[in-house]
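Exercise 3.2. Students should predict the tertiary structure of the chain below and write it as structure tokens, then compare their answer with the key that follows.

Predict this chain's 3D structure.
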Amino acid sequence: MKKYTKSFLILLFVLSKAILFSQSSKIKAYLGEKQYYSPQHGNYVEFQFQFVGYTFKYEPFEDGLRGKVRLNLEVFDSDKSVYKDDYALYTPVMRDSIIDDFFEIKRVVLSPGDYQLKLRIEDLLDSTKTVQATKKISISDLSSEVKLSDIQVNENVLKSDDVNNVFYKSGVLMFPKITSFYSDEDKRLPVYFEVYNTFEHTDSVFALAQEIVDRESQVSLPAYSSISRLKQDEVIPVLKLIDISNLQTGNYELRYSVLTRNNDTLVSNSYFFDRSNDQGIVINENTVLIDPAFQKSISGDSVAFYLASLIPIAQQSEVKNIIKILKQDNDSLSRKHIQAFWFGTAGAKYYEEWLKYKNQVLYVEHLYRNNYMKGYETDRGRVYLQYGAPSMVVQRDVSSSEYPYEIWQYNKIGRFSNKRFIFYNPDLVANGYRLLHSDMVGELKNNSWQYELNKRNTNTGTVDDPNQNVLPTYGGNANDYFRQY
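Answer key:
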């Protein structure tokens, strides 16, 4: 079994069409984009902003506090400006000194094609707080054939007849959720999208299929699959509320497809999201039936060892349970937990999968243990157990400038391709390798990894380029190896 940790921190990278713009400790704002179509106006993009409230300055207003933000947007087609807006936006009045995030939406009509958005945000109450960014935009043609808009998930949806409100659409006020991470506090997905041009098709009745797919296993979850009926129309708004309270931790794809009466797929669109749900394996000593063969595979003096070895592949809630049971030093409960863990993970094949994993644990114990850590506790052991054996390993124990290091390259990890990990041994202690950097989602990202690897004889670079002073040296090939494979 292979799992990977989930990314809970979003810093300066695109995530499901959302990006966080930030400079140092100044303004922070999320930008999302969704594309729609209107028969009256044509194709348009909806720029959705979520401003991180505490990063702005406020002044007294009525019985609370209010801020003022300047928003400057300009859209370019090559070097030609095709849209520009520059205006001031008042924040909602913050009551009782509670500073919440606030939102804004700008809808811009654009013909199909590729564009570039230039954005500038300024705190008008503190001129030192500004942020600028650019973003590429691609507009598809939704004006003909059966098409779907982007899928929008909302923070909140309220019935309303306030057609002049910027958040109004199809009879409701929708406040978009810009990021695509859902904690165990998120119980529902309020989903909105639109279906276009069904009247152009020969069929008069269509089906709308919904499914949630585990992105690692590519298995569709039956509890979240449904089919509803659609009739012909120019624009069909779809608003759904999906209960995810029992959806376990993982990376998922919410997929909608329009089907003909013959079950042929006309069009599909997806929304990708990450879920952290603190629901682990619940152990009830009275309901766990001991499997003699399973328990025989765990010797009496290694129960705690094998229980702790589950941590690299366990969900966070399960890790808490494991640590709690380890502290109790209860051999019987530990055995039951190990068996229940594998039954909950692999079902009928729990014994077979356990034996495979046990062999991997013994393998990393032999290769990666050191004087103060067991094999599965080391970074290399954890990565091996979590993702499996690497496709290729580059190992360098001696270099004129670099600490000893290893680069692991994986051809495939779940849905990800060509992912790499670099481990190094800065203390020069036998087998004391640590993870220095990886380009795998959810793993340690270290932009100054080259500097850290060459730290014995390299001066610190700048904030903008921490590797500035890392000069080529004889035998210093880590960067070449990392980029090559």
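Discussion points: Residues 1-17, 461-471 have pLDDT under 50 and may be disordered. The chain has three domains: 18-275, 292-383, 390-484.
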